[in-house]
Amino acid sequence: MAFAASRMSVTRCALPLNKPLGRTAEDCGFYNPLNQKMLAREKCIKRKKMPLIVEAVQVPEIGVPSSSSSPGSLNGWKLDSWKSKNALQLPQYPDAEELDSVVDLLKTFPPLVFAGETRKLEERLGEAALGKAFLLQGGDCAESFKEFNANNIRDTLRVLLQMGVVLMFGGQMPVIKVGRMAGQFAKPRSDDFEILDGVKLPSYRGDNINGDTFNLKSRQPDPQRMVRAYCQAAATLNLIRAFTTGGYAAMQRVIQWNLDFTSNSEQGDKYMELAHRVDEALGFMSACGLTVDHPVMNSTEFWTSHECLLLPYEQAMTREDSTSGLWYDCSAHMLWVGERTRQLDGAHLEFLRGVANPLGLKASDKMDPAELVRVCEILNPTNKPGRMTIIVRMGAEKLRLKLPHLIRAVRQAGLIVTWVSDPMHGNTIKAPSGLKTRPFDSIRDELKAFFDVHEEEGSHPGGVHLEMTGQNVTECIGGSRVVTLEDLKSRYHTHCDPRLNASQSLELAFIIAERLRRGRMTKADAGILSLLKGLANV
Prior knowledge:
By secondary structure, the chain is an alpha/beta fold. About 40% of the residues lie in helices and about 10% in strands. The chain contains 15 helices and 16 strands. Helix 5 (about 150-170) crosses helix 7 (about 225-245) and helix 13 packs parallel to helix 14 (about 440-455). The radius of gyration is 24 Å and the shape is globular.
């Protein structure tokens, strides 16, 4: 995509040269206002303290990634240097040439997200690391081709918007909304093969790799599925952008977000009570002459994320940002590395250390404190705020024992990270029916333990990571609208792990909001006491 260069009138500019000029160009990440002559001129200007002369330049075309390119400052990192490392959890494609052909095709496709958006998310996560914001990350365990439709996308987004309002009201702080959406297809598996009635076939690894139907044709890894996954991610992201910027996410619509099947529940009633309070506040603002037409009130920031697992796809979607020279994986704003692929000498860490996206790291009770510090140093050598998010998944009892040691090790190393609770993966059990489920009480207990430990350690609980859906499913047992073991089969639709339904998700949001409110009040009380002590000593 090239734009014709045009001549601008000479302009005096006080902006520093390293700042992008223009929001649209910055968000797209393809606009570089500096050519080599201007870089040389910058040094001269700094010496002479002269105003900057800015002229329009040719905008470069979108760069197609080359496997031989290197960022230079990343200690030998290349786009394909991960191939020299041990790569776990990758499928064995039967036709290597077809795989290469699909990867080459994906390299020519437009990016799904832009570098400027990704940098904004990193800034927001940096605030969460300092206790000034809270991350709400949620969505499907694994997106599927079969359940892809506008209603499912809208309903999951709507629940996330509701939860965001609840958390923001309780915590009185910004809520960073990140979806496990528009790319969360691939799933790691504990076994490469599945045996059913004496038949052994490759395990289902997600719709972007193979199918879940138990036959050889479906279970054979097919690289063409990556193309379909890209198209579905693009359509999902397009709809999300329309909803979040087109008026649907406006605060004035907060009452209309309630889902039909939650409207007559305890959680639905609590939400409506809160929504009416928000609506009254907006009316008060309007009566005071304060406009509610500001973009902050009519739209919301929303980012996407998924597990960085299928490396051929991630490599194909990686682009060099012309404004910074950094590499961004443009398949999502945020990526995380899972428990099974976080080896220090592994391919996934090798790939991720070279991309500039905010990164998450799943940490179970098996995580050694020294290993955690080393992973953070590999992925974030400059200790940049917002770059590293530690997503803790242990179960309540193990978390109380293990998390304090991780927090202390990170603090002692002087590392800046955002601590996030994943109360889902450490609480998966098998029901008598054979279906996997998660007890709501166990999820709640792990969240309570997470907040308790951070309160004791003096660190910041920075967010929550949930597998959830806007559908009225029966996959996790418990909650105020009780889902029993007998209910599981009635609406059990997940392709992988059990998800919270909308009512359970909203109930959890109120529990977290109350804990955030308590933390806020405790800090306020401590501040008042400190002030009084100071006055007493005057």
